[in-house]
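Lab notebook page, bench 4
Experiment: in silico fold of construct C2
Operator: M.H.
Input chain length: 392 residues
Purpose: comparison with the prior construct
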Amino acid sequence: MNLKFPEGFVWGTSTAAAQVETASNHPWRGLKARDGYVFDRTTDHEKRRSEDAAFILRFGNIYRCGVDWSHLQTEPYAKFDKKVVAEYHSFFETLQKGGVRLMFVLHHFAHPNWFEEAGGWTKDENIPMFLDFVRQCIKHFSEYAAYWNTFNEPNVYAMNAFILGNFPPFKKGKYFTANRVLDNMGAAHDIAMAMIREKSDAPVGISLNTAYFEGTNPAGRLVAAFVRWWFMNRAARPFKKCQFWGLSYYAYMLFDPFPVDAIDRVEELEKRNIAHDKMWGYRPEGLGWVLRRFYKKYQKPIIITENGICTDDARQRISAIRDYLKVCHDAIQEGVDLRGYIHWSTWDNFEWHLGPTYRFGLVRVNFETMEREMTPAGLFYEEISRNNGFNV
């Protein structure tokens, strides 16, 4: 049986500038990741744009990415560096000529050190700095954007930066600060959306991370219920003024009441016979629950802006793509207005505080030589995007 997706369904892949370009003057630079690699060189994307563009062009008609704010703007309210703008223009032109436009992401976990030193997202007086960056992005890059994400996964950023302490500025247990950060990002989103609407017809949304949370005992169920509420209700609240919901989904998260994942407690998952990748429990049907829930609640179009698994095994990645796309197809048949699927990620990148050996790429990167190699999973996804469907 062939599963066909609706006419006009969007296919593509995604990366983040900080994870693929050599680190510039932002707070991630110099971080020693869990796997021992240092956040610096990442994947040499700025030296391999033509090669990387050739891969991107094989994976659909949308590429979800951003630009390096700290590389473009060396101080508050400065004009963008013309040389850096020209490099991005050349890259985006190559994609556009090949039939690929952008879902342009304005903030993906990284911003300049000067913004961080001023208090970053914890202070509402810093919002105009971000909006100046937005204004210049609109000026220089809007012609390439078919969609905009003002923020990528603000819930992941707020949780990891101010509750778990994994992301810069590495604050732990600052729940109320995390909420303030979300609200400041939400205020910035509303203004940025209005700015974009003045200059562009491209739809504006965010990407919100989602997951399937479950408790394994009474205490775990309480924790799971709270995390579910905060992560997908409280965190979404400031971003309701959007034209579509971008949703990412990766994780089946258990609590007992402490988190049970494959990073720190893989033996617990295996003891329970729960399938997993290198980071989380694996439950594709959880994506279906998320899609139905969000569409019922907000009645707005949805695009899956990130989805994938962390694995070194291309066969496991192919199986996951099949599983997730079956779930997506079922949701569409049930009436969910799902308009696209963007796989994470185009090629292996530097997985934030964990490091580059936590792989998500359709294209494999040798992190000693930076050489790229198409994987069987990449060939499989290329075929899906070309045919707007696949055989089951």
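Observations: The first strand starts at residue 2 and ends at 4. The two ends are 5 Å apart (CA to CA).
Next step: discuss at group meeting.
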